[in-house]
Amino acid sequence: MSNDFGQAAIIAKDPYAWLSENEIDPENGEYPEFKNPLEIIVEAMRDMIFPAPKKIKYPMEPSGRKDWMPGVDPESRLIPESVVPGILEGSPMQRVDQPTPSGKPTEGEATFINFICDCSGSMGSADMGFKPGFTPMQRSEMAKVIATSIIEACKAEGHYFQVVGYDTSSWSIWPGPSNDYDAAISYFMNPPEEETDPFAPRGGTQAGQAMRFALDNMDKFIVAGKWTVKSCVTFMIADDDIQIGDKGSPAGNTYCGPWDEKFREYGPVYYCFTVPITPEGTISPAGYGMARAMISCRNQLKEYYGSKYETEDCSTSFGLFWNPLTDTTIGAGKLIDICMGRGKNRCTGKTSK
User: Fold this and answer.
1) How many domains does the structure of the chain reveal?
2) pLDDT at 155
């Protein structure tokens, strides 16, 4: 099953940079700044995946365009829509007449990212290796790392987003349409002590109703906010309980297929499975069940759509392993391969065909 992971990406980081080895002198008031171990991992991910392209400034470019060819057309400082290699590719047009700082919306077209995160009880399993500081990493924390890393890419590229959590019901972890990247990342990494962690595991799992909830949210701001979503990318981040169903399946709470179809009208839909890995970047024995679920999801998508869309890479894997002996964070999985632009990305929606 290690073939599903491809080549591991490795980044060397010092996880103890924020610790002081010497006794602290209370007189000088210079205390070491504590950094959440998850932040250390997210910082490593900036270089591990989503390598940001160097901006080329063309101040005379028009303020809107109908199409854009990645790698061919120049980028403009007037249009914050450029591409993250591998995932946010296509023809996103994001005009400058989006909602104003005062909050009053105007007509415009947006590139939008949906994050739909499994917060069921099984996401509390601490089988994702160790974080810096030698504390076990839960699957829910892995989901947080994935969402945060991609939101950092959204910040660089000017995309809008929403984050939804679900068990057998759904809620907004971070309502959209938002481009308040720093506030969202800060909230995810260091939620207020008096509040429950927004990704905290609880309850059962019904992924279908979560997709419906996120879609309803998107529909509301498309109509009420006068937004035209030209393209979007949707990430379902879960451990193993994803059922696509078949064409005869009802649009209920469990099956994702009917809601996947609606999201895929705007762009690709990725099912990202948090899979435990070894120091070598291969799937660990604890991850075999999730790897089978990932393959099952891939087969269901193929059966559901036939040749209508490319779906081979829509069911993806993602794992991290922090090696305390080498102070190295290792990341592996199909999602990393896609983000780094390795090979053809075979996951399409209507706007990306």
Assistant:
1) 1
2) 83
